Amino acid sequence: MAQRPKRGIKADIKGPLIIAAVLAVVAFVCILIFATGGTNNAPEFRLALSVAGCVFVGTLVVCATLIIVEKPNDEELGQGTGINKRSADLYAQAKARKDAREREAREREAREGGGSDQSDAASGGSEPGGSEDGPDYGQRAHPEEHN
Questions:
Q1: How many CB atoms lie within 10 A of CB 32?
Q2: Considering Cα of 34, then 40, then 41, then 45, what sign does the dihedral take?
Q3: Please, where are the H alpha helices in the chain?
Q4: CB 43 within 8 A of CB 18
Q5: Mean pLDDT of 119-132
Q6: What is the Cα gyration radius of the chain?
Q7: If DSSP codes are grouped into helix, strand and coil, which group holds residue 2?
Q8: I want to staple 144 with a disulfide (CB 3.0 to 4.6 A). Which of 45, 75, 94, 107 is the partner?
Q9: Residues whose CB falls within 8 Å of the CB of residue 49, separated by 6 or more in sequence, listed in order
Q10: In this model, does residue 118 exceed pLDDT 60?
Q11: CA 55, CA 63: separation in Å to the nearest integer?
């Protein structure tokens, strides 16, 4: 997002004040005309002023909220350090650790001769409650093992 040049406080306040004043005048005129109830009745100035004041304040609150929301954050806030790291980085690190563990396990099996694992798989023999069969109930789950 492009950075807009710094402006003074008067320039930031002038726009919302004009918008709020115009809406308040429109509300005042509308309430003054429609709340009277005809040409034979006296105009309701107190009601029209009350509604115009509420519209003015409400418009200023909405404009101030939109101004606050529009301000962009510094780029350095999105990087994250310490415990505030980005979740994408945490996921990538956990996946790298898991891949490294699996690669080491395959290399270790290849060096040890892996023949006994193939005979167990062919006969269908496996430990009950092993991690290949399903979850180990009652064991604490670690996020780095499940990524």
A1: 17
A2: positive
A3: 9-34, 45-70, 87-112, 115-123
A4: no
A5: 48
A6: 34
A7: coil
A8: 94
A9: 28
A10: no
A11: 12
SS3 76: helix
Amino acid at 64: A
d(CA 23, CA 53): 10
pLDDT value of position 19: 94
Spatial contact of 52 and 25, defined as CB atoms under 8 Å apart: yes
Token pair in block for residue 86: 């980005």
3-state secondary structure at position 37: coil
Q: Which pair of tokens denotes residue 114?
A: 């892996």
Q: Are 30 and 17 in contact (CB under 8 A)?
A: no
> Chain-centre distance of CA 139, in angstroms?
32
Q: How confident is the model at residue 145, as a pLDDT?
A: 64
Alpha-carbon dihedral sign for residues 137, 132, 124, 108: negative
CA distance 46 to 119: 93
Report the residue count for the chain. Answer: 147
Spatial distance between the Cα atoms of 120 and 103, rounded to a whole number of angstroms = 21
